[in-house]
Amino acid sequence: MRAMILAAGLGTRLRPLTNDRPKALVEVAERTLLEITLSRLREFGIREVIINVHHFADMLVDYLKKNDNFGMRIEVSREDVLLDTGGGLKKAAWFFLEDARHADEPFILHNVDVISTIDLGRMVRFHKELEALATLAVQERDTSRYLLFDEQLKLCGRLSGHDQQAEFVNSSQQLQVQAVAFSGIHVISPRIFSLMSEEGAFSIISSYLRLAAQGENIIGFRADGYYWRDLGKPENVARAEQDIKEGILRI
Predict the structure, then answer these.
(1) Is the separation of the CB atoms in 157 and 177 below 8 Å?
(2) For the whole model, what pTM was predicted?
(3) Separation CA 118–CA 126 (nearest Å)
(4) Cβ atoms 229, 115 nearer than 8 A
(5) Does domain 2-245 bear CATH number 3.90.550.10?
(6) pLDDT band at 172 (very low <50, low <70, confident <90, very high)
């Protein structure tokens, strides 16, 4: 199984920690976010990873070389212009399609600036059992961007704008829906690449909503019982370090 780590962002919210390094090399308890993410993926048997880079790209590449790619096959996808989550994934499509033997094997897409104990193996099994195109780890927590799922945990819309108006992509407004927060971890079937009509820089969530409207199976994996934290701000990094000291989180 393979994975992609999204690490190309500027890390604006993490300043001043990202003034002299990419966000992937910000440290939590003396370990970089990239090392923590790679270790998590390796725990679940993943040995082949592609990472997109942009901000301080050479520094990240040198870091990987210095650490012998942490014993994994790691490819780097350079983005001269930031392509957002969807565009970045589409640019890296070759990595998941290069070997016909694995052309139908789902892969993991993981933000570098989230830390969690979400059971990736269970999530992959859930994805396969429901024959999903994409499976998104979601939780019930406060966020500024909610996704909407129906009773069968199928993506059916989102809450958008300052007034959080419901935007539905199908007839699910007639059903009981749940508004949950996306956690930046996906399991995706490679078939998605033939369906991504968007070009340039675009959000993968926009693709998911369009595909859900067309009847594709985009589902939510409830991950409420697991530890999860967004490390996009310095105070969140500090909180994670405290959680580690207190034994709430082990990395």
Answers:
(1) yes
(2) 0.94
(3) 13
(4) yes
(5) yes
(6) low
Query: SS3 sequence, the chain?
Result: CEEEEECCCCCHHHCCCCCCCCHHHCEECCEEHHHHHHHHHHHCCCCEEEEEECCCHHHHHHHHHHCHHHHCEEEEEECCCCCHHHHHHHHCHHHHHCCHHHCCCCEEEEECCEEECCCHHHHHHHHHHCCCCEEEEEECCCCCCEEEECCCCEEEEEEECCCCEEEECCHHHHCCCEEEEEEEEEEECHHHHHCCCCCCCCCHHHHHHHHHHCCCCEEEEECCCCCEEECCCHHHHHHHHHHHHCCCCCC
Query: Exposed, middle or buried, 187 (CB in 10 Å: 0-12/13-18/19+)?
Result: buried
Between CA 147 and CA 158 the distance in angstroms is 4
Neighbouring CB atoms inside 10 A of 183's CB total 23
Residues 7, 68: Cα–Cα separation, whole Å? 19
Domains of the chain, residue spans: 2-245
The pLDDT tens digits for 113-141 are 999 999 999 999 999 999 999 999 999 99
**Tokens at 163, concatenated:** 């007034």
CA dihedral 69, 45, 56, 239 (to 10 degrees): -120
- Nearest one of 186, 154, 156 to 173, comparing CA atoms: 156
What does the chain come to in residues?
251
CB 2 within 8 A of CB 92: no
Give the count of beta carbons closer than 10 Å to the beta carbon of residue 58: 10
Rounded mean pLDDT, 191-197: 97
